[in-house]
Design a protein that fits this description.
By secondary structure, the protein is an alpha+beta fold. About 30% of the residues lie in helices and about 20% in strands. It has helices at about 20-35, 70-75, 105, 115-120, 130-135; strands spanning about 1-5, 10, 15, 45-50, 80-85, 90-95, 125.
Length: about 140
């Protein structure tokens, strides 16, 4: 089973530093900016992570696997997240779902955005319901 520490993604005996995902984002942005038709200034990349689904009409979850490109860019293993990468700076913002308090009854502790910021070594973490406000201010 995969495990994420504050500085690395660990699976079995292998450890991948979270800094690798920051390097991936930087390389992606550099590649876009050096393209013969680069994106306009202040462009952003919007990525949607994998969505958690249930088995048919039951309350049983299907084994979740993160969307590959999303994981490559941000290293996030949780479902139902979004990410925005500013092409000019490679600044990344992770958007996590705002879970209701009753979620903790069945699924355990609900972590605040600061937990994910540290866990994934990402610049900014907001809730998915704040994405419209984020784009209005950028």
């Amino acid at each position: 089973m995969a495990e994420v520490s504050s500085s690395a993604f660990n699976i079995g005996p292998y450890s991948v530093p979270m800094s690798l995902h920051a390097e991936n984002r930087s390389r992606l942005c550099s590649s876009l900016k050096s393209h013969p038709k680069p994106p306009p200034p202040s462009s952003c990349i919007l990525l949607q992570g994998g969505e958690q689904t249930t088995l048919y009409c039951s309350d049983r979850d299907v084994l979740f696997r993160q969307e590959s490109y999303f994981h490559w860019c941000v290293g996030v293993s949780e479902a139902d997240c979004l990410a925005v990468i500013q092409v000019d700076t490679a600044h990344a913002v992770l958007f996590i779902p705002r879970l209701p308090e009753v979620y903790a009854t069945w699924m355990g502790e609900i972590h605040p955005p600061s937990h994910f910021k540290e866990k994934y070594a990402i610049q900014e973490v907001l809730f998915t319901d704040q994405i419209t406000d984020y784009f209005k201010r950028t």
